[in-house]
Each structure stands twice: as C-alpha cells, then as structure tokens.
Amino acid sequence: MPGSRNFLTWNAAMSRMKRLMIALGFLLPAIVCVVLLRIWPAGLALHDSLIAPGDDSYSLENFNYVFTDPDFLNSLKVTLVYSLIVNPLQIGIALALALLMNTLVPLIGFWRTLVLLPVAIPQSVSAVVWGVALRPDGLINSVLVVLGLEPQRFLTSADQALGSIILIVSWIGVGYWMTFILAGLQDIPKSLYEAVTIDGANGWQRFRFVTLPQLHRPLTFVLVANTVANFLVFAPVQILTAGGPEGSTNLIMNEIYTKAFVISDPESAAAATVVLVAAVLLVVVIQFRLMSRAEDR
Fold first, then answer.
1. How many whole angstroms separate alpha carbon 37 and alpha carbon 284?
2. pLDDT digit string (tens) for 215-248?
3. Whether pLDDT at 37 is above 80
C-alpha cells in the first residue's frame, strides 16, 4: 500500500540519519582537532605569508625575501641532502629488521621490544642522551680511544654534525617504521611462498616476486609518512646543534623557528612554512605516482 511504502521509506531515511549522526559523533573530535590544529594554522600561515611587512596589503614580498636569503637557501639545501640520505636509510634498515623479526628467532619477543624501545622515548630525551654520548669526552669517544682511534667531533664538526643527527633520528624512527612493515609481512599468505618454493624459487626470488609486491601498500605508507616526518624534524637539531656548526644542520624547521622566535620575523617564517608545506606535498605526490606506476607494472 502507498501509505506503508511511505512509512518504510521514512523509517529507512530516519535509520540512515541516525547512523550518520552516530558516525559524526565519533568523528567530531577528530574533525575539530584537524580543523584547529592543521587547517586553521595552515590558512593563517598562508595569510601571514602574503602580508607585506609594515603594510596590510597582499604581496609576494615575503617569498621574494626568503628566496634571496642565504640562510633559508642553505636550509633548503641541507634539508634536501638530509632527506636523500635519511629516508632510504631508515626504510632499508626497517625492512631488514622486519624481515629478521618475522623469522623464528629465539627470544623474538625480547628483540622486538628492544627494537621498539626508542619509539617510547620522547625525541627530546633521546637527543639529550645522545648529546651526552657524543660529547668530546662522552661514551662513544671513550670507546674510540680504548680502541686506539682518534676522538671525533661528532656535533661540533661541520663535516660530522649532520651525520650525527641522521644517526639519532634513525635510532628513534627505525623501530617505529619496522612495525608497519612487519604487520604487512605477517599478512602475506604463506601459500604464496609455498607455491613459488614448489616452482623452485630461491630466497632472493621469493623476496623479489612475493614479498616486495605484497608489501606495496605498507611500504607506500611508510615511504610517505617517513618523508613527511623527516621534513618536520626539529627537536634533535634545536637541542644538540641549533642548526650549527656553520649551518651544516640547519634544517628548514629550525630555520622557520629561528625566523619566527629568534629574530622576530613572523612574516618570513610564515612564507618559509608555506614553502615547506608545498615541498612536502610535491614530494608526496611524486612518491605516490612512482609507487602507483610500480604497482601497475
């Protein structure tokens, strides 16, 4: 009957509305956090970057300034070198550790906990501990002296400081990225390995033709998230070197902090922030494109 059909339609619509309201209730805290902590600050940074100093008019003067500022250009170069080294290094070590932790190693739970332990320690605390260990009279130099080697200026040499930051950041992050790759490894059906083993595949062939293709999604996530995280590294640099010596560790986040809070130039800091966000988005898009093409092959 028409009345019954209308009632059922209305009842179904109300049911859908109720489910939608419940879903929005669960999502609302996350949406508020994204708006207040991500979208609003990004919009504010874009607005401030377009305000000319001493004037309320919009212009590109701040961008013209930062792209002629030697300190900012140096921070871009240092960040590029840092990213080209630290991203493949961390992912490669994380993948190797995940493969190792996915085997029947004795006391596997202990080893997994040991690898994950640095993740539970805040970056600032890790930076302080490593700073003590890497001091000229610290533990690592003491070990080098015992071994008959010359002590090194890990954090005070322009040739070694960036490498030391890469070491510290990798020590913190490798275990974290390993967990995602390990979860992906454990989701690979054992039947795939059994099938290729019956066909005579060796260990390298199983890794190349089964493991890597099956890890495409976890590796894509790790690659993108790791790239973004390393672009935003700040605490170890600020605590240990403050961008020195001679600007060798002046990553872009440290340069933004310096402009905003040390030399009190918020407009230039906002412009540098917009450049950083644009660079991150560009790198992420390129990574997604490259990984998508690899998956289609």
1. 21
2. 888 888 898 889 889 998 999 999 999 998 888 9
3. yes
What whole-number distance in Å separates Cα of residue 53 and Cα of residue 64?
Answer: 12
Q: Which residues pair with 58 in a beta bridge?
A: 51
Give the DSSP H or E segment for 136: none
- What confidence score (pLDDT) does residue 288 get? 76
- CA-CA distance, 80 to 279, in Å (whole number)? 10
Q: How confident is the model at residue 295 (pLDDT cuts 50, 70, 90)?
A: low
Contact in structure between 278 and 270 (CB atoms under 8 Å): no
174 within 8 A of 90, measured Cβ to Cβ: yes
DSSP assigned state of 208? I
Q: What is the pLDDT of residue 196?
A: 83
